[in-house]
Amino acid sequence: MIRRFGGGIVSLGRSAGGLRELAPTQHALIGGVFMGTYLGLEWLTRVHELQALGITLWNPAKALSLGLLLLKGIAYAPMLFLAALLVDLFIYGAAKSVTSTVATSMAVALGYAVLAAGLKRGLGVALGRSDLRNVIAVLVTVPAGTFVIACVYCGLLILFGDMPAERYWEAVRHLWVGDTVGIIILLPVAMAVFGSVQRLLDTKSTALVIDSMVFLAGVLIALWLIFSIEGAHEYHFFYLLFLPVSWIAMRAGFAGAAIGVSVAHLLLVAFINWGGYPASTFMGYQFLVLALALNGLLLGAVVDERRSSDELLREQHAEVVRVTRHATAGAMGVSLAHQISQPLSNVAMYLHVGRQLLADRPAEPVPIAELLEKAAGQLRHAKDILERLRDFVSRGALRPARTDLGALARKVVALAEDDARTHGVLVRFEAAPVPPVTVDALQLEQALINVINNAVDAAAEARRLPGCVNVRMAAVDKGVRIEIEDNGPGVSDVVAKNLFEPFITTKPSGMGLGLALSRELISAHGGTIDWERMRPDGGARFTIELPLSSEVGYGA
């Protein structure tokens, strides 16, 4: 496929390694930023280097390389080759021979290109997806791939005489640990940023701050215990780090786990460097960090999967409720048509006969009056049928009881938040202490759901983003008031006149029964529901007032 972009033409599609269609200047910019960052990371993390060969026990630059290849395609592998070459020349002082430097740089570029292709094309891994399948694929494939690359890399060093053969497995272990830890620690952060960080941002800011502070305090306490207790084995208390990492994974899912593991590792590295520990100790901690990362990342991915399953279940439940309502309305319509067709037909017949009698025998009013009386009786019969159907569908039997209205409202708001989040709507709940009220909790909950869902739907169409719904509750004289406000487009004048009547709706796919049913339910509790415009250009506020105790209007 050929596309124009920014004044340049590039015709590289999937056959060219997945390189996106970008202008040459943009390719150069991406490559320059990548190589500059790569060299900077190599310089910053040059810890415990093996024999001045550029093999360190921590190499986050490899995570940057793999992330670029996954995001932009393996056509960027030459930039990785050039970056590795420049690192050997300028960071590690060209300790290897020229031939060995070129060969090992080529091995790194080809090795990570193959690893990225296997992850992306073979296993379907993408930085924008942090589901459990993707996470497992990364955690299993990356260590295996880096081990193969380490074996080839160290083999080339021996081949070109830069390292004695007896140190081969030591070098392989050194290189494998550094590259694997660098990728396993940082690549999930990129996956979280591109995939699941929005879920983390949707968390309430107060809860996010508290969770972060608790996690950081837990990590610092664990590190203090690990490195401060004299006489303990150097790895004896490492398991304490599993507690805060597991906790943040359960609280914030994969995004929290990825960020938490990286923070814990950075602090651990700082403590190790500050303490001046030898390479053997550092390697031991790196192995333990791999176990910590595997545990935290898998737990975070499982938590996200569980939450996604719960959200899907709620959506399916909502769809079932919607379909059931439509089916109920359809059944009601069929029943209504069937039951009132006969009395209406009789009314039409009586009126027709009465009109004929009036034309033929106007002087005899008695038969005409009898026909009109029969017609009126049939109309009363039709009215009774309609009232019975209305009672059956909308009312049922109430079971009033003392109810914590604040807890009930919080439950409804929590249910509404999931749907609101998918529409980009923020739902806020403010509740002052209110006394218990005597209501049928189930029926009142349905009424609140109807009104709040209507507000969310309206806010989703807000002209001023983001959409917002505010739910407030406060005690009033001998009762409780609930206000539901939205910043949506408002209610048109045509609909406003009959807003609480059945089959009146502002939604293209709405049935117009929600507000009518809510008014019936609230009225049955002795309460009232009303609305007003927030602004001339839109917005609406629905106000529900309920008495503390009242005689219910129906039910037994």
Helix content: 55-70%
The amount of beta strand, in percent, is 5-15%
What structural class results from the helix and strand content?
A: alpha+beta
Q: How far is the N terminus from the C terminus?
A: 71 Å
Low-confidence stretches: 1-20, 552-556
Q: Which H/E pattern describes the elements? A: EEHHHHHHHHHHEHEEHEEHHEE
The 3D shape can be described as: elongated
Task: Kindly provide the radius of gyration, computed on alpha-carbon positions and rounded to a whole number of angstroms.
Answer: 35 Å
SS element count, helices: 14
Q: Strand count, sense and closure of the main sheet?
A: 5 strands, mixed
Mean pLDDT: 80
User: What spatial order of strands do you see in the largest sheet?
Assistant: 4-6-7-9-8
Strand segment tally: 9
Give a nutshell description of this structure.
The protein has 14 helices and nine strands. By secondary structure, the chain is of the alpha+beta class.
Helix-strand layout with pairing:
Layout: E1 3-5, E2 8-10, H1 24-44, H2 61-72, H3 77-91, H4 98-122, H5 132-159, H6 168-201, H7 205-228, H8 242-275, H9 279-360, H10 365-395, E3 401-403, H11 405-422, E4 425-431, E5 437-439, H12 441-459, E6 467-476, E7 479-486, H13 493-496, H14 514-524, E8 528-535, E9 538-547
Parallel strand pairs: 4-6
Antiparallel strand pairs: 1-2, 3-5, 6-7, 7-9, 8-9
Helix pairs in contact: 1-2, 1-3, 2-4, 2-6, 3-4, 4-5, 5-6, 5-9, 6-8, 6-9, 7-8, 8-9, 9-10, 11-12, 12-14
